[in-house]
Amino acid sequence: MISAQDQARLAQAIGDVEDDTSGEIVLVIAEQAGHYRAIPLLWALLAALATPWSLLWLTALSASRILLIQLAVALVLSFVLSWPKLRYALVPRSIKHAQGHEAASREFLRRGLTRTREKTGVLIYLALAEHHAEILADTGIADRVDAGIWAGIVADLTAAIGAGRLTEGLIEAIRRIGAILAEHVPPRLDDVDELPDKVIILP
Protein backbone atom coordinates (compact mmCIF):
# COMPACT_ATOMS: atom_id res chain seq x y z
CA MET A 1 0.00 0.00 0.00
CA ILE A 2 2.81 2.40 0.93
CA SER A 3 6.51 1.64 1.38
CA ALA A 4 8.39 1.86 4.65
CA GLN A 5 10.54 4.60 3.12
CA ASP A 6 7.50 6.69 2.24
CA GLN A 7 6.03 6.09 5.68
CA ALA A 8 9.24 7.46 7.16
CA ARG A 9 9.05 10.53 4.89
CA LEU A 10 5.46 11.19 5.96
CA ALA A 11 6.28 10.76 9.65
CA GLN A 12 9.18 13.18 9.24
CA ALA A 13 6.91 15.72 7.52
CA ILE A 14 4.45 15.51 10.42
CA GLY A 15 7.25 15.94 12.95
CA ASP A 16 8.67 18.92 11.07
CA VAL A 17 5.41 20.87 10.91
CA GLU A 18 4.54 20.07 14.53
CA ASP A 19 7.73 21.88 15.59
CA ASP A 20 5.95 25.12 14.66
CA THR A 21 2.63 24.47 16.40
CA SER A 22 1.06 23.07 19.52
CA GLY A 23 -1.45 21.26 17.32
CA GLU A 24 -1.25 17.57 16.48
CA ILE A 25 -1.58 15.82 13.12
CA VAL A 26 -2.43 12.13 12.77
CA LEU A 27 -2.35 10.32 9.43
CA VAL A 28 -4.40 7.14 8.95
CA ILE A 29 -4.30 5.24 5.65
CA ALA A 30 -6.81 2.41 5.30
CA GLU A 31 -6.91 -0.10 2.48
CA GLN A 32 -10.69 0.09 2.67
CA ALA A 33 -13.34 1.72 4.84
CA GLY A 34 -15.83 -1.11 4.42
CA HIS A 35 -16.11 -4.62 2.95
CA TYR A 36 -19.56 -4.35 1.33
CA ARG A 37 -19.95 -8.13 1.33
CA ALA A 38 -23.73 -7.88 0.88
CA ILE A 39 -23.44 -5.89 -2.37
CA PRO A 40 -22.51 -8.82 -4.69
CA LEU A 41 -25.26 -10.95 -3.16
CA LEU A 42 -27.82 -8.19 -3.65
CA TRP A 43 -26.98 -7.74 -7.34
CA ALA A 44 -26.88 -11.51 -7.88
CA LEU A 45 -30.33 -11.95 -6.35
CA LEU A 46 -31.76 -9.11 -8.45
CA ALA A 47 -30.37 -10.73 -11.60
CA ALA A 48 -31.76 -14.10 -10.54
CA LEU A 49 -35.19 -12.57 -9.99
CA ALA A 50 -35.13 -11.08 -13.50
CA THR A 51 -33.93 -14.29 -15.18
CA PRO A 52 -37.23 -16.25 -15.32
CA TRP A 53 -39.13 -13.57 -17.25
CA SER A 54 -37.05 -13.85 -20.40
CA LEU A 55 -37.01 -17.65 -20.14
CA LEU A 56 -40.78 -17.82 -19.77
CA TRP A 57 -41.30 -15.67 -22.89
CA LEU A 58 -38.57 -17.13 -25.09
CA THR A 59 -38.39 -20.82 -24.12
CA ALA A 60 -40.60 -23.75 -23.19
CA LEU A 61 -38.50 -24.75 -20.18
CA SER A 62 -40.27 -26.29 -17.23
CA ALA A 63 -40.67 -24.39 -13.96
CA SER A 64 -38.21 -26.71 -12.21
CA ARG A 65 -35.57 -26.14 -14.91
CA ILE A 66 -36.06 -22.37 -14.69
CA LEU A 67 -35.66 -22.55 -10.91
CA LEU A 68 -32.35 -24.38 -11.33
CA ILE A 69 -31.18 -21.73 -13.78
CA GLN A 70 -32.17 -19.02 -11.30
CA LEU A 71 -30.09 -20.66 -8.59
CA ALA A 72 -27.14 -21.04 -10.95
CA VAL A 73 -27.33 -17.37 -11.95
CA ALA A 74 -27.42 -16.29 -8.31
CA LEU A 75 -24.47 -18.49 -7.33
CA VAL A 76 -22.27 -17.63 -10.30
CA LEU A 77 -22.91 -13.89 -10.12
CA SER A 78 -22.43 -13.72 -6.34
CA PHE A 79 -19.05 -15.39 -6.84
CA VAL A 80 -17.96 -13.28 -9.83
CA LEU A 81 -19.12 -9.97 -8.36
CA SER A 82 -17.21 -10.66 -5.14
CA TRP A 83 -13.99 -9.88 -7.02
CA PRO A 84 -12.80 -6.72 -5.21
CA LYS A 85 -12.65 -4.39 -8.22
CA LEU A 86 -16.13 -5.36 -9.37
CA ARG A 87 -17.52 -5.24 -5.84
CA TYR A 88 -16.31 -1.70 -5.24
CA ALA A 89 -17.49 -0.59 -8.68
CA LEU A 90 -21.02 -1.75 -7.81
CA VAL A 91 -21.22 0.25 -4.58
CA PRO A 92 -22.96 3.62 -5.08
CA ARG A 93 -20.70 6.62 -4.54
CA SER A 94 -22.95 7.95 -1.77
CA ILE A 95 -22.59 4.72 0.21
CA LYS A 96 -18.80 4.72 -0.19
CA HIS A 97 -18.67 8.34 0.93
CA ALA A 98 -20.85 7.63 3.97
CA GLN A 99 -18.76 4.59 4.87
CA GLY A 100 -15.54 6.59 4.52
CA HIS A 101 -16.87 9.40 6.70
CA GLU A 102 -18.04 6.95 9.36
CA ALA A 103 -14.64 5.23 9.38
CA ALA A 104 -12.84 8.59 9.60
CA SER A 105 -15.01 9.67 12.54
CA ARG A 106 -14.30 6.36 14.26
CA GLU A 107 -10.55 6.76 13.80
CA PHE A 108 -10.73 10.36 15.05
CA LEU A 109 -11.99 9.08 18.39
CA ARG A 110 -9.84 5.95 18.45
CA ARG A 111 -6.56 7.80 17.88
CA GLY A 112 -7.06 10.23 20.76
CA LEU A 113 -7.60 13.35 18.70
CA THR A 114 -10.31 14.53 21.08
CA ARG A 115 -7.97 14.29 24.06
CA THR A 116 -5.29 16.86 23.21
CA ARG A 117 -4.79 19.67 25.71
CA GLU A 118 -6.05 22.50 23.50
CA LYS A 119 -8.43 20.44 21.32
CA THR A 120 -6.26 21.10 18.27
CA GLY A 121 -5.84 17.61 16.82
CA VAL A 122 -6.27 17.14 13.06
CA LEU A 123 -6.84 13.80 11.36
CA ILE A 124 -5.98 13.07 7.75
CA TYR A 125 -7.87 9.92 6.76
CA LEU A 126 -7.57 8.00 3.50
CA ALA A 127 -9.59 4.97 2.39
CA LEU A 128 -7.87 3.85 -0.79
CA ALA A 129 -10.50 1.41 -2.10
CA GLU A 130 -13.20 4.06 -1.86
CA HIS A 131 -10.92 6.85 -3.16
CA HIS A 132 -12.04 8.74 -0.07
CA ALA A 133 -9.99 11.41 1.70
CA GLU A 134 -11.12 13.42 4.68
CA ILE A 135 -9.71 15.93 7.14
CA LEU A 136 -11.29 16.15 10.59
CA ALA A 137 -10.25 18.83 13.09
CA ASP A 138 -11.08 19.08 16.76
CA THR A 139 -13.05 22.07 18.05
CA GLY A 140 -10.00 24.08 19.10
CA ILE A 141 -8.96 24.50 15.47
CA ALA A 142 -12.17 23.69 13.53
CA ASP A 143 -13.91 26.73 15.02
CA ARG A 144 -11.18 29.02 13.70
CA VAL A 145 -10.82 27.69 10.14
CA ASP A 146 -13.38 27.90 7.34
CA ALA A 147 -14.57 24.46 6.19
CA GLY A 148 -13.78 25.42 2.60
CA ILE A 149 -10.06 25.51 3.41
CA TRP A 150 -10.10 21.88 4.50
CA ALA A 151 -12.17 20.98 1.42
CA GLY A 152 -9.56 22.63 -0.82
CA ILE A 153 -6.76 20.61 0.75
CA VAL A 154 -8.79 17.41 0.34
CA ALA A 155 -9.52 18.22 -3.33
CA ASP A 156 -5.84 18.76 -4.09
CA LEU A 157 -4.92 15.61 -2.19
CA THR A 158 -7.39 13.43 -4.08
CA ALA A 159 -6.19 14.92 -7.37
CA ALA A 160 -2.59 14.05 -6.47
CA ILE A 161 -3.59 10.50 -5.51
CA GLY A 162 -5.48 10.13 -8.80
CA ALA A 163 -2.31 11.18 -10.62
CA GLY A 164 -0.29 8.50 -8.81
CA ARG A 165 1.40 10.93 -6.41
CA LEU A 166 0.13 9.54 -3.10
CA THR A 167 3.12 10.35 -0.92
CA GLU A 168 3.79 13.75 -2.47
CA GLY A 169 0.12 14.69 -2.16
CA LEU A 170 0.09 13.70 1.50
CA ILE A 171 3.27 15.64 2.26
CA GLU A 172 1.80 18.74 0.65
CA ALA A 173 -1.43 18.31 2.63
CA ILE A 174 0.56 17.88 5.86
CA ARG A 175 2.52 21.08 5.17
CA ARG A 176 -0.63 23.08 4.42
CA ILE A 177 -2.36 21.81 7.56
CA GLY A 178 0.81 22.55 9.52
CA ALA A 179 0.79 26.15 8.26
CA ILE A 180 -2.83 26.54 9.40
CA LEU A 181 -2.01 25.13 12.82
CA ALA A 182 1.09 27.31 13.14
CA GLU A 183 -1.00 30.40 12.42
CA HIS A 184 -3.79 29.65 14.87
CA VAL A 185 -2.04 27.59 17.58
CA PRO A 186 1.69 28.42 17.72
CA PRO A 187 3.93 26.29 19.93
CA ARG A 188 3.85 26.77 23.70
CA LEU A 189 6.92 26.88 25.93
CA ASP A 190 5.74 23.72 27.69
CA ASP A 191 4.59 22.02 24.48
CA VAL A 192 4.94 18.23 24.24
CA ASP A 193 4.24 15.82 21.41
CA GLU A 194 0.91 14.38 22.55
CA LEU A 195 0.25 11.97 19.68
CA PRO A 196 2.64 9.77 17.66
CA ASP A 197 3.87 11.06 14.30
CA LYS A 198 4.03 7.64 12.67
CA VAL A 199 1.72 6.74 9.80
CA ILE A 200 -1.10 4.43 10.89
CA ILE A 201 -1.79 1.76 8.27
CA LEU A 202 -5.04 -0.19 8.42
CA PRO A 203 -5.84 -3.30 6.34
TrEMBL record:
<keyword id="KW-0472">Membrane</keyword>
<dbReference type="Pfam" id="PF04536">
    <property type="entry name" value="TPM_phosphatase"/>
</dbReference>
<feature type="domain" description="TPM">
    <location>
        <begin position="99"/>
        <end position="179"/>
    </location>
</feature>
<dbReference type="InterPro" id="IPR007621">
    <property type="entry name" value="TPM_dom"/>
</dbReference>
<keyword id="KW-0812">Transmembrane</keyword>
<keyword id="KW-1133">Transmembrane helix</keyword>
<protein>
    <recommendedName>
        <fullName>TPM domain-containing protein</fullName>
    </recommendedName>
</protein>
<feature type="transmembrane region" description="Helical">
    <location>
        <begin position="41"/>
        <end position="60"/>
    </location>
</feature>
<feature type="transmembrane region" description="Helical">
    <location>
        <begin position="66"/>
        <end position="86"/>
    </location>
</feature>
